[in-house]
Amino acid sequence: MSSILFSALQIKSIILKNRIAISPMCQYSGHDGFATDWHLVHLGSRAVGGASLVIQEATAVSPEGRISPGDLGIWKDEHVEKLKSITHFILSQNSIPGIQLAHAGRKGSVTPPWQDNLKIGPENDGWETVGPTDVGYHNDAHPPVALGQGGIEKVIADFKLAAARAVIAGYKVVEIHAAHGYLLHQFLSPLTNTRTDSYGGSFENRIRLTLDVVEAVQSEWPSDLPLFVRISATDWAEGGWDIEESVELSKILKEKGVDLIDVSSGGNVSHQQIPVAPNYQVPFAERIRSESGVKTGAVGLITDARQAEEILQSDKADLILFGRESLRNPHLPLAFADELKADVPWPNQYSRAKL
């Protein structure tokens, strides 16, 4: 049986040479939102390693939308120049550059993971965070400010401008981050959205900001290029956002022209209970794909070639996104191709090592 993992996937005008994508993973290594050579080498090495799609980390649409002071940003035109060098290199390796546009909301203004994700107050170069309400994720002295109508309109406008800059920077896939407890997810979940206006309460109101952002991004993003949305399929907490609501949202997103749902989970509340195990999120991708008809990406503790191949052979997803495993092995697709007996081209510079 021929490998689906190493078969092409066309989404609009873009042809992915295989079904292996690099999941967006924050590096916490930027300066005032600017990318550095670290990002060029980190993302470029995954393109050299054979991934068909390399999605850049959560890239903040505004300064207050960052998770940490080291997050990448695309909130000003000056950010674009370095990003162009990254997309140019990825494209030169017959790979597709993608970008995840994000706003951290109440989970922003924290130190990087290797400094324990501690909240940073404005007195220590942090910033005032925002959210659907003034209830914070972190139990500290700096709760978020509840967004008013003007603040919501600014968030939507920031995503729109970020999408326009992403086009100029040369990205060919854009992903809207509505997962992991960041701002859009905070509005989706009844655990974090207790508003009583048109952006809170009912399912239709809680999804409103995500749909507004999708529409704003689409107004700048070329219609022939793929648009992804990453969601957390469940909060893993009683009374929270769940798979049933994720299916309904995915149906609406498909109708709105979204091409693929990147299916993750969790991250919204600290009392979540996640049963982590290989493939633990794959059933969500499978159900969304089956019930909404939209393409899905599977992610989460997918670590080997045959595991990924089985997901695709069983029609559980259309694309496999690799995170930590790609950090362990930047050339993971080349290794997987050897294991599955798929003949794929290697970079000329590395061809002497091909078995």
Write up this protein.
By secondary structure, this protein is an alpha/beta fold. Helices cover 32% and strands 15% of the residues. The chain contains 11 helices and 12 strands. The chain has helices at residues 37-48, 80-92, 149-169, 183-188, 203-206, 208-218, 243-255, 282-292, 305-313, 324-328, 332-339, and strands at 9-11, 14-16, 20-22, 53-60, 96-102, 130-131, 145-146, 173-178, 227-232, 260-264, 295-299, 319-322. The strands form 3 sheets. An 8-stranded parallel beta barrel has the order 3-4-5-8-9-10-11-12, surrounded by 7 helices. The longest helix has 21 residues, at 149-169. It is globular, with a radius of gyration of 19 Å. The two termini are 21 Å apart. The mean pLDDT is 97.
Radius of gyration, rounded?
A: 19 Å
Overall pLDDT confidence: 97
Alpha plus pi helix count: 11
Low-confidence stretches: none
What is the number of beta strands? 12
Strand content: 15-25%
Main sheet specs:
8 strands, parallel, barrel
> SSE string, helix = H, strand = E?
EEEHEHEEEHEHHHEHEHEHEHH
* Strand order of the biggest β-sheet: 3-4-5-8-9-10-11-12
Cα distance, first to last residue?
A: 21 Å
Structural class: alpha/beta
**Which of globular, elongated, flat, extended, rod-shaped describes the shape?**
globular
Which range best describes the helical content: under 10%, 10-25%, 25-40%, 40-55%, 55-70% or over 70%?
A: 25-40%
